Amino acid sequence: MTTVFAVANQKGGVGKTTSSVNLAASLAATRKKVLLVDIDPQGNATTGSGVDKFDTDYTIYDVLCDEVPTEQAIVATPEDSGFDLITANGDLTAAEVQLLDMKSREFRLRNALARIRDRYDYILIDCPPSLNMLTVNALTAADSVIVPIQCEYYALEGLTALMNTIEKIRTVLNPKLHIGGLLRTMYDPRNSLSNDVSNQLISHFGDKVYRTIIPRNVRLAEAPSHGAPVITYDPKSRGAVSYLALAGEILRREQALKNQPAAAS
Ligand code: ADP
Ligand code: MG
């Protein structure tokens, strides 16, 4: 059974891309088959995975807007990373508008992934910093949402809008969508604000907050310029260890969900 995760938060710079790339690599390191789908026109997940965003035959734009078969847009990342990728670049900016006029506009990504999802254990979708039609497509295609939250000023701002959007999509477009977890990123224990934000998250969201905390770690910020996930760039760094721990926590949560007796519906 494949699980599709959307990594979403409409705030920029909260660690969506860092989490997508490093979680993809960490899940792949546990021998899972993983596909990372970049749906941000900035293409940072593509570059950070070591792939030139201007040098692939097809990108996610071609899949969403030009009916290119999904499998033709899949590329391998450099061997050490061990996961597959569908790339994005600036072309995708046009898709935000073009999608609005298309048939089944919210379901384009879901339908595209349906063709290939059985090949993977996990599919991760790195969302743009907005609640636009691309993010709606990601949430409609996903089983579960990972919400990275930077433990800094204004971290909780916008969270209500995101939760409302997720709820609306669950009701109208994708009944199986659920919150996988809220992920504390860029955490600095010496900063009392980090602790405040973390405590607030736990009091609001309880078990929905992943136990694993991603620390602020310079290796995580450096790795993309080397085109590698941190577990390749510096496997012993705190950043690498924390994303491997997150992968472990996610696998355990998934297992626990699967072991639950099916809910009466
Ligand atoms: P988003 O995709 O949400 O916009 P990014 O993952 O691109 O956010 O992160 C924003 C910036 O912060 C990037 O420069 C990234 O390298 C850096 N960064 C992300 N997570 C960490 C971390 N845990 N420690 C240090 N720097 C980080
Ligand atoms: Mg990003």
Automatic annotation (TrEMBL):
A Pfam family reported for this protein in Swiss-Prot or TrEMBL: AAA_31
Domain AAA: 3-179
UniProt similarity note: To B.subtilis soj.
PANTHER family: P-LOOP CONTAINING NUCLEOSIDE TRIPHOSPHATE HYDROLASE, PARA FAMILY PROTEIN CT_582
Protein name per the record: ParA family ATPase
